[in-house]
Amino acid sequence: MGRPAKFTHSQLQAAALALVDREGLAGLSMRALAGELGTGAMTLYNYVSQREDIDLLVVEAVIGEARWPLAGYAQWQDEVRAIATALWQAVRAHPHAIPLILTRRSRSPAVFEVTEALLRALARSGRSGPALLVAFRAVSGLITGLAQSELAGPLALQAEESAELTIARFRALPAERFAHLIDIANAAAGSTADGEFRASLDLLLAGLSADRGGER
User: Residue ranges of the DNA-binding region (predicted)?
Assistant: First the structure.
């Protein structure tokens, strides 16, 4: 018998993410990942022991795609913006993986390095301890929250429904009861997810800049 196939961690990550991108989470399994790698399911047990391990491969692969310039930021806001935007772009590039990013907690050093980079940038504002924690949760929550809102928010598209039809449904609501909901539905018709993210991040950074991080 030949030796079992050997795979690097990066190869496992790439194969798991490719499978999720193509088949969705329903298509992610030990057997499917083995097929993606061209090996048998039993071989994978040399690398992962359970389904959650495969989920974490996907999370690590997505976060690992975030890239931003590592130097050259005169202001802490610019560095936070660069890191947050890189994470946003990585997450949005893989919509099927978003539920895993929201629910799985990776302890991978690679994921920790991204987290540390964001914390380091936020700490340049003078924050530490509880104030730094709040700022970090605000920025990371903005990234994942906006990504999730595209899937499950009030303006999220229904299955097999166009954006135009979704907006039309809101415009048909009673205006006296849902004036503001209709208002943002109309705004969404001319909006983009990237544009909303940039505006939301600017708003958040303005708030963090105004509140210089008093301990809470």
Answer: 29-48
